[in-house]
Design goal:
Blueprint: H1 22-32, E1 37-40, H2 45-61, E2 67-70, H3 73-78, E3 86-89, E4 92-96, H4 102-114
Parallel strand pairs: 1-2
Antiparallel strand pairs: 1-3, 3-4
Helix pairs in contact: 2-4
């Protein structure tokens, strides 16, 4: 007789506490591999400041690269980012938790684009 031994349910852990669907995770993983510059964040003032600084740095460097602003938390979590705003260059997290100044963004872009390792 099994009164106190209930069968435990197997759980799978996800970065978003099982709130995502397999389709959402597949889209997030596909978005990670695209070679672009992305600003990850909810759209707050710091996220907008980071995006403006990156745009100014790209203009000074003469790089014609589009910037995507990612606000979907499943996609943000797919990068392993826990604090926003974050800057992703060519699929790699370059900065997180800080709104960079134009000169800082310029240095990071030069480093990431010339030395992708």
């Amino acid at each position: 007789m099994r009164l106190f031994h209930r069968k435990k349910k197997e759980t799978t852990s996800c970065c978003c506490s099982d709130a995502c669907t397999p389709d959402a995770m597949a889209l997030a993983e596909a978005a990670k591999t695209s070679a672009k510059i992305k600003v990850l964040g909810s759209g707050c003032a710091k996220c907008s400041a980071l995006e403006d600084a990156v745009r100014a740095a790209l203009k000074e460097l003469g790089m014609d690269t589009s910037i995507d602003h990612v606000t979907d938390f499943a996609q943000i979590a797919a990068y392993g980012v826990m604090t926003t705003p974050a800057l992703v260059v060519d699929g790699k997290v370059a900065s997180c938790g800080k709104a960079l100044k134009k000169e800082e963004a310029k240095a990071i872009l030069q480093k990431m684009r010339t030395n992708p390792d």
